[in-house]
Design a protein that fits this description.
Strand content: 5-15%
Helix content: 25-40%
Radius of gyration: 25 Å
Number of strands: 10
Order of helices and strands: EEHEEHHHEEEHEHHEE
Structural class: alpha+beta
Shape: extended
Strand order of the largest sheet: 5-6-7
Low-confidence stretches: none
Distance between the termini: 44 Å
Number of helices: 7
Largest sheet: 3 strands, antiparallel
Length: about 220
């Protein structure tokens, strides 16, 4: 059987088989290389468990066993094991061609984090968080160019930076002056404008129509 069972907190559930997922990606890569008129090399696939608290066990009739699975600390040994096998070699010219195609067609992943974890915008804690590790209070106040924590008294010049980074990650990759004020809980248009300019963010538009974007 290809079933994978996750056991956690005395409960179990069936989850997608990560080895089959890796195998599917290998098949798709081969197909893509064929479509690009490339010589298709031998493609190995491997599931690497990066969670050191997760234990993987195999049923006696598991078709994959340890062949296509390893823990993160065994990755280099697994790579060496693969390299030790006799492999079909391709020319440097073809290898460079594949490299150029992969780089040219690479699209960085930009997932919708809220949708993925089924979180609504109302669940997001807004405001600037205190950087002090034993406080981390949300709701620092901006006073004369400095963020002040009303709970512990911590002061910071740049506590807004992680908040804006979180906005780009969780909400959307662009922000306006109005959206910044709402998210950071500040009233002044001038202060919000000063903060946005200080971060050297790329932007489009002028005056009230200006939109700032997440750095590449």
């Amino acid at each position: 059987m290809d079933q994978v069972i996750l056991v956690k907190n005395n409960s179990s559930e069936r989850i997608p088989n990560p080895v089959i997922q890796a195998k599917t990606q290998a098949i798709k890569l081969k197909k893509w290389l064929q479509d690009q008129n490339c010589v298709v090399p031998l493609v190995h696939y491997l599931f690497v468990n990066s969670n050191n608290k997760t234990k993987i066990t195999f049923s006696s009739h598991n078709p994959y066993s340890k062949l296509n699975i390893c823990n993160s600390e065994g990755l280099f040994d697994k790579i060496g094991e693969i390299e030790s096998h006799e492999m079909e070699k391709i020319s440097q010219k073809e290898l460079k061609k594949i490299t150029r195609l992969l780089l040219a067609n690479h699209v960085p992943e930009d997932p919708d984090i809220l949708a993925y974890f089924e979180i609504s915008l109302e669940d997001i804690q807004t405001g600037v968080q205190c950087p002090k590790s034993d406080c981390e209070f949300f709701g620092m106040e901006y006073r004369y160019g400095t963020w002040c924590c009303p709970k512990c008294g911590t002061r910071s010049k740049d506590a807004h930076i992680p908040a804006i980074q979180d906005y780009f990650l969780l909400i959307k990759p662009s922000i306006t002056n109005s959206e910044l004020r709402n998210f950071l809980h500040i009233d002044s248009i001038k202060v919000a404008n000063k903060i946005l300019i200080s971060m050297n963010l790329p932007y489009t538009g002028k005056n009230k129509g200006r939109v700032y974007y997440k750095p590449k």
